[in-house]
Amino acid sequence: MSADTMPGPLSAVPLRPRSVARRRVVDRLVTSLAWLAAAFGVFIMGWIVVTVVGRGIGAINWAFFTQSPPAGADLGGGLGPCIVGTIVLTGFAAVIGIPIGFFGAVYLSEFGRTGRIATAIRTITNVVLGVPSIIAGLFAYAILVKPLHHYSGFAGSVALAFIMLPVMTRAAEDVLNLVPNELRESALAMGAPRWRATLGVIVRSARAGLITSTILAVVRVAGETAPLLFTALSSPYWLNGLFGPSGFFGGPVANLTKTIYDYSTSPYQHLQQLAWGGALVIIVAVLGTNVLVRLVFQRGK
Amino acid sequence: MTETTTDRSAAVAPRIEVATGQRAVEFDALPSKLSVRGLDFFYGKEQALFGNTLEIKEKRVTAIIGPSGCGKSTHIRTFNRIYELYRNQRATGEIWFDGRNILASGTDLLDLRRRIGMIFQKPSPFPMTVFDNIAYGLRLHFKLSRSELADHVEDALKRAALWDEVKHKLKEPGLALSGGQQQRLSIARAIAAEPEVILMDEPCSAIDPVATAKIEELIAQLSSAYTIVIVTHNMQQAARVSDYTAFFFEGRIVEAGLTTQIFENPQRKQTEDYITGRFS
Predict the structure, then answer these.
(1) Long-range contacts for A258-264 (Cβ within 8 Å, ≥24 apart)?
(2) Which of A4, A186, A198 to mutate to test the interface with B (most CBs of B within 10 A)?
(3) Which of A74, A106, A118, B17 lies deepest, with the highest CB count within 10 Å?
(4) Does B85 contact A185 at a Cβ distance shorter than 8 Å?
(5) What CATH homologous superfamily does B30-123+197-275 map to?
(6) Residue span of the structural domain in which A195 resides
(7) Which of B2, B87, B141 sits opposite A191 (nearest CB)?
(8) Mean pLDDT in each 10-residue stretch from start to end of chain A (301 residues)?
């Protein structure tokens, strides 16, 4: 544009500046509110951790990890079977929930996208994400416990998988959506079939995020209690085989969360002590994994 | 706003040097690699290309120029049907390539995309090593022994003028290279699949001037063996690298022909206005 076509002032009305002092006050106020809210969250978190560590640390010793819960009013013992049980229940839930969640996410982000089916799946996923976890337990009870006439670890894992599935799907879809379209186009422009472009290039470029999503989804259900209430129940015995009364498919399986619930409400002080120890183990495992995963994969970026 | 009184023809137009004109012979004398006939394109209900007709000459560089949003990229994205990734995009008309209309159903897209490679605006190395990036297309389309694969990778990198810079970095991730190197890696990756046509969608707009100069040099070298179509919003670049130029405006081809002619003696006033920067 040449000089002679430069426009003049837009209007004859003078522009009145806003008060700088007022803006500064509002800025301070909003900043402090945000800061306070964050500090409150951290404070509560810290309080929980300090309490659990303070009360639970006394229960932690070698026997805690290796021995079964004491029978009757005996002292001593540990939560060994519960730790093993929780690991197995969560692990098997992951075997079911993670692959389905992963492929669901691949479908949503790579194939369905904004289509009607994908939109429906996404909505359902969001709804399931908000379903109270006890409903997941009821669901597994209805399809696996009631028809078979016995509680089982398998039913517990299915209930946990039901909670894990939408968490994994949403997290993985978010990660896949971060892959730039240019990479998708580049892979397809090489003459790659859709599935090869998806698995070989797109999923691969999102792998750090996908691993993070997986671990966080697994850890998310490790601390669940309600889904196990009428599925895996709990037991004081070591998991033994598959189909026997102490087997994964055959009967109740010991686990930390339900045991914590039972022992914390018992009148015996040494059982309450074990419950605090169990709480400490779970909180350390969940928090530790979270922090570790974020540290490792954020550095990779 | 006041009307400028300066006479248009009296204004000093920026001179654009046309360097590659000597290679370009009369338009009709050369065989066409791609013939576009009545190409319409739609984004949903919105039409972006209107009955375009264009000849892409074999083993020559054709530049597509025009202001932003005029349909340059849209046009070349029909040549390998990459637009089909998006469900609301649709092309009608004919694009003849080797005796077949590639827009017809029944076109083998995987083979089409091997024969018509594409380079994008942003360098997009795959998340793997330099070697595997180049080997990607080779593994997709050819059965090769380990040593044959290594030979072809080396050959492609040499043809993309990247070998000397990366021969000791073959095991490093492609993303570790510089932006300009990444773009030449993309070119090498496309070349490795033995294409006949290479489409370049603003290949230099995300890289620095030195890297741009290298890519332009590379385009000149490659044009002896490949048919190249380059979309660029840099007119100097179009003038430097191309034999033929098509000027797009609002989804239509205003003028197409020898680059020398388009830049030195445009037939249409719209073309002249754009070339001389008098576009509004």
Answers:
(1) A258/A225, A258/A228, A258/A229, A258/A232, A258/A233, A258/A234, A259/A69, A259/A79, A259/A82, A259/A234, A260/A225, A261/A225, A262/A234, A263/A69
(2) A186
(3) A106
(4) yes
(5) P-loop containing nucleotide triphosphate hydrolases (3.40.50.300)
(6) 83-255
(7) B141
(8) 53 78 93 97 94 91 87 79 92 95 95 90 93 92 90 91 95 94 94 93 93 91 90 82 79 89 89 92 91 77 45
Shortest alpha-carbon distance between residue B20 and chain A (Å)? 29
Of B4, B112, B124, the CB nearest to A5: B4
Using the predicted structure, report yes or no on whether residue B136 has a pLDDT greater than 70: yes
Searching chain B, which residue's CA lies closest to the CA of residue A206?
B127
ipTM of the assembly?
A: 0.86
d(CA A191, CA B116) in angstroms, rounded, equals: 9
Look at residue A147 and tell me if it is in a domain: yes
Is the model's pLDDT at B15 over the cut of 70?
no
A129, part of any domain: yes
Question: B72: distance to nearest CA of chain A, Å?
Answer: 17
Measured distance CA(B203)–CA(B31) in Å, rounded: 26
Q: Which residues of A touch B136 (CB under 8 A)?
A: 190, 192, 200
Domain count, chain A: 1
Binary contact (B113, A2; C-beta < 8 A): no
**Within-domain flag for A69:** no
Indicate the residue of A5, A188, A193 with minimum beta-carbon distance to B85. Answer: A188
For residue B128, give Cα distances in angstroms to A201, A212, B105, B174. Answer: 8, 20, 34, 6
Q: Is residue A39 part of a domain?
A: no
Q: What is the largest CA-CA distance in chain A?
A: 99
Question: Domain locations in chain B?
Answer: 30-123+197-275
Give ∠ CA B211-B213-B217 in degrees, rounded to 5.
115
171-230 of A, contacting B, C-beta below 8 A: 180-193, 196, 200-201, 204-205, 207
| Set of chain B residues whose Cβ sits within 8 Å of the Cβ of A4 | 2, 4
**CATH code: domain of residue A110:** 1.10.3720.10
